[in-house]
Amino acid sequence: MSLDGKIATVSGDSEFSDEEDWMRVHRLRSEVDAIMVGVNTVLADDPKLTSKVGRSPMRVVVDSMARTPPTARVITFMRREVPTIIAVTGKAPAERIEDLRKAGANVMVCGEKGKVDLEALMEKLFEMGVRTLLLEGGGNLNWSMLERGLVDEVRVAIAPVIVGGSKAITLVEGEGFSKVSQAVKVEFLGVEKVGSCLLIICKVKREADDRRNETPSET
Q1: What structural domains does the chain harbor?
Q2: Is the preceding omega at residue 137 within 30 degrees of 0, hence cis?
Q3: pLDDT of 13-33, one tens digit each?
Q4: What's the pTM value of the predicted model, to 2 decimals?
């Protein structure tokens, strides 16, 4: 992302990383069981979500209304070697679901309301053997996962650019918390230079972590 927290410009350009940082991402992809993005990322970037080094993991698209095009590269590229799951809701049009299945995607219904039930999706992925999941955005899905406590670690690569724009997408979108006291707390684990980017690694803190770290009061 940019130094001012944008993961894309107002026109949708998201090419912030240099070659060295991209290789870091590809190595990380090869180490996890699945990669997950939201449908807006698919519509904007048409990513393959594969790894250039090592194995390519399962691909997961959170897509409440089955808007992913059957021709999207996340489905068609390496279709036989790398499975793709499209997580939808019960409100998704049946004809879209059928088109996705014909294209080779595994369509999974998670929830009957307007948005995908992320907790149910995580449970289904766990049942399928997924133990490590790499979340690659976009901003709204990042918010939903963080707000529900479904993120363990955050890795942010900051590029040496400032793009501005009140309508440019930030790392975390959504409604946001109304008070700082409600915010997701993190513990900084490390900072390193990767190419021209600065990589920050954080652990998401849980309430139990805070209780363990409390200093007993003297009586």
Answers
A1: 19-213 (3.40.430.10)
A2: no
A3: 999 999 999 999 999 999 999
A4: 0.93
